[in-house]
Design goal:
The protein is an all-alpha fold. The protein has one domain. Helices cover about 55% and strands about 0% of the residues. The protein is built from six helices and no strands. Helix 2 packs antiparallel against helix 3, helix 3 runs antiparallel to helix 4 and helix 4 crosses helix 6. The longest helix is centred in the last third of the chain and has 18 residues. The chain is globular and about 30 Å long. The two termini are about 25 Å apart. The N terminus is likely disordered.
Length: about 130
């Protein structure tokens, strides 16, 4: 099972109300991931995440690629919240661990993660899969 499909479907949805390097010459937000990833690199970064990738490594992969420049501030913040939560999960996280990711999210963080999931879904739906370039 690929995390690319299970993380957004299971983990990310748990962080939301339902309780869920490849940008060359990248620009990074202060202390964060690049903010100028191509759409294909951004979407492709999720396709690299298999069930054999630890949550921390998944966060590192996503952070290395970053987000496209057209992502809204709230969605970008949701991306950063998600990375932070993934890095705090145990190496061999299970479904229960992913459910626990949502604990302690403020209303703003929860809304921003929801905005990120919506952005991801709208930008990456129907794109061919493959590793980012």
């Amino acid at each position: 099972m690929r995390i690319a499909r299970s993380l957004p479907a299971a983990g990310l949805l748990v962080l939301t109300g339902g309780l869920a390097a490849c940008g060359s010459g990248s620009t990074a937000a202060p202390g964060g991931a690049p903010t100028d990833a191509s759409k294909s690199s951004f979407c492709g970064s999720f396709d690299q995440l298999t069930a054999h990738v630890s949550p921390k490594r998944a966060a590192d992969t996503l952070a290395r690629v970053g987000t496209p420049g057209d992502i809204g501030a709230g969605a970008r913040h949701g991306f950063e919240v998600l990375l932070d939560r993934l890095r705090k999960l145990p190496e061999h996280a299970n479904k229960g661990d992913i459910t626990q990711m949502a604990k302690g999210l403020t209303g703003t963080d929860q809304a921003d993660v929801t905005a990120f999931i919506s952005y991801y879904a709208s930008e990456c739906q129907g794109l061919p899969t493959g590793a980012p370039s």
